[in-house]
Specification:
alpha/beta; Rossmann fold; 7-stranded parallel sheet; 15 helices; 14 strands; globular; binds adenosine monophosphate
């Protein structure tokens, strides 16, 4: 199937062609017709599957098809768990809407609220927001949500993990009852199903084929190493192999800071991003990493979630994640959109069970490599793994990971296509000045 067969407006097809895309990804091919038809949607899709365009393209199409009536009002609200993801989603809205007159805005916490208030006043069609800051605006009455036609919850599983459930419910209460709802989540736990059941109306269900499988283009391997020697091994690997753009995952914020410092001391350009860093520091680190000025970016799962870096060559799991599905999310940063990548895990004796769980999830063993001089000491006994530092993830997942995340058998009952309501009329087109407010 080609994009041209999906019934999208010529302006949108032009923007897609500008990006060099011809073929919709599986999630796009499934989701776009459902959203165009006005149905509610429940989509199981991870980052890297093209999910953002999966909802952005048909939403833009619906706006473009609608008639403009009265002053500009926010018609589309996209909620994301993190600031970085919010910024990236709004980037996509602007990219795909480049030839349309709509105005988009991203708002998130950690930066001044006044420029956001000024931007909101000027009028916005598509608002991308993190829940906390959106509620701040709602409380101050600086945002008008009464014209929302379409709501998207992106990475809903992360939002719940981060403890946003109450915020989401508060936002839902502020929206008009009659609207189209789209929920995207990497996995479907009971919690997600409960949330979905509370606001989706006869949703159609679509699922990306990459669910819980490692991307084909990623070469994965494990170095077994003693817990105390991981830092030295990482320094040696980066230097010996000449890795220049490495995303390194740690379990905790303090672990990320300590590792970045150690790498800097070893003469490797490194920085850390996590929730305790100011938004400016995070944005700067990410920009430096993207341009190659920074060779290593050390990140916690939450900070790294949704980061879209084209052709990222190396991902290192300095510590394995506690939840196996996070391994797939992490290595999804590399081997994207046709480029090859490598995912390296440094595994100490404490993590052997986590490694087994990951191999069970991805349904294949990961090759073990030896690095001379770093052979593990067989006399070292496993110790309990220190959990994430408080606040690193807000709410903790239940032990054993997200129920429903591991296999297709746990797929939520997909409502029949015929059960979906008739499409709503498109919303009015309005003027977009193309400017970006942050
Ligand atoms: P996402 O899952 O939305 O984060 O998208 C992952 C990456 O795939 C992004 O870099 C997109 O720009 C890219 N992408 C999205 N749709 C397509 C497509 N149809 N063909 C090729 N690349 C795409």
């Amino acid at each position: 199937m080609k994009f041209t067969e999906l019934g999208l407006a010529p302006e949108i097809l032009r923007a897609i062609a500008d990006q060099g895309y011809e073929i919709p990804t599986p999630i796009q091919a499934q989701a776009i017709p459902v959203v165009l038809a006005g149905h509610d949607l429940m989509a199981c899709a991870q980052t890297g599957t093209g999910k953002t365009a999966g909802f952005t393209l048909p939403i833009l199409n619906r706006l473009a098809a609608g008639k403009s009536t009265g002053p500009r009002k926010i018609r589309v609200l996209i909620l994301t768990p993190t600031r970085e993801l919010a910024a990236q989603v709004e980037d996509s809205v602007r990219t795909y809407g480049a030839h349309l007159p709509f105005k988009s805005l991203v708002i998130f916490g950690g930066v001044g609220i006044n420029p956001q208030i000024a931007a909101l006043k000027k009028g916005v069609d598509i608002l991308v927001a993190t829940p906390g800051r959106l509620l701040d605006h709602a409380q101050q009455r600086t945002v008008d949500l009464s014209g929302i036609d379409v709501l998207v919850l992106d990475e809903a599983d992360r939002m719940l993990d981060m403890g946003f459930i109450h915020d989401i419910r508060k936002v839902l209460a502020l929206l008009p009852k009659k609207r189209q709802n789209l929920l995207f989540s990497a996995t479907f736990s009971d919690e997600i199903r409960t949330l979905a059941g509370s606001f989706l109306v006869n949703p159609e269900y679509v699922e990306s084929e990459r669910r819980n499988t490692a991307p084909d283009l990623v070469t994965q391997y494990v170095y077994k190493v003693d817990r105390e020697r991981k830092r030295d091994l990482l320094v040696d690997l980066i230097k010996e192999k000449g890795w220049y753009q490495v995303l390194v995952f740690t379990r905790t914020k303090w672990g990320a800071n300590g590792l970045a410092e150690k790498l800097l001391k070893a003469g490797i350009e490194a920085d850390a991003i996590h929730g305790n860093k100011s938004q400016n520091a995070r944005t700067r680190a990410l920009a430096n990493f993207k341009t190659g000025k920074l060779h290593v970016l050390v990140a916690t799962d939450i900070a790294a979630r949704g980061i879209d870096i084209d052709e990222l060559p190396h991902v290192v799991n300095y510590e394995l994640p506690n939840v196996p599905e996070d391994y797939v999310h992490r290595i999804g940063r590399t081997g994207r959109a046709g480029s090859e990548g490598s995912a390296i895990s440094l595994v100490c004796v404490d993590e052997h069970k986590l490694l087994k769980d990951i191999e069970r999830l991805i349904k294949k063993p990961i090759d073990v490599m030896a690095h001379p001089g770093y052979e593990p000491d067989p006399t070292i006994r496993p110790e309990p793994i220190q959990m994430r530092s408080a606040g690193a993830r807000g709410g903790q997942r239940p032990a054993g990971g997200r129920p429903g995340g591991a296999s297709r058998t746990s797929k939520p009952k997909a409502p029949a296509r015929t059960a979906a309501p008739a499409g709503k009329p498109g919303s009015g087109a309005a003027h977009r000045n193309g400017s970006r407010h942050r």
